[in-house]
Request: fold
Amino acid sequence: MAGDGVRNVFDPTEILADIATLQDSVDDLDADVVLLQADVTDILAIADGLPTLTSMVGSTTTTIVDTEYDLYVLAAPLGVYKPILVTVNFLNQTAGETVILRQYRRDTDGGVWSLFDETLPIIGVQSPVLIGISLGPNRYGIRTTIERTGGAARAYPWSAFYEI
Reply:
């Protein structure tokens, strides 16, 4: 039995061809991922540039009659910004109180506050208890105030909503 040793009849040609095909497919997928990443980067740049709604809250007490008290004030925005709404909660107001809400704007950098809008006197118990002050885009600053013209000192919680 000389010369009849164990022989390997395996031919790797087909497997090597399959491996080459798989490598080509992986290369194609890798190229697609690179293109997809470029699209994701573009989408993130757009999304990062979109305004984000944010808010600020506080409470103002009208201690002295016929005195204006600040609610929401942004005196020096970094650029054009879009304040949207200030809501004032009148839950604490009783039948004896009368207040006026005002909105001021600046027209120049560091300029004086100019009266933009004013409510009629808000007298007594309110329903609904939230009163909104609509705001618009502004470059140089916005200020909202409350003035008690009658009744006792009350705390008025407020919320401001704006885009940054």
About this structure: The chain has a mean pLDDT of 91. Residues 9-50 form one domain. The beta strands are 53-61, 68-74, 82-89, 98-105, 114-118, 122-123, 130-134, 142-150, 155-163. The chain has two domains: 9-50, 53-163.
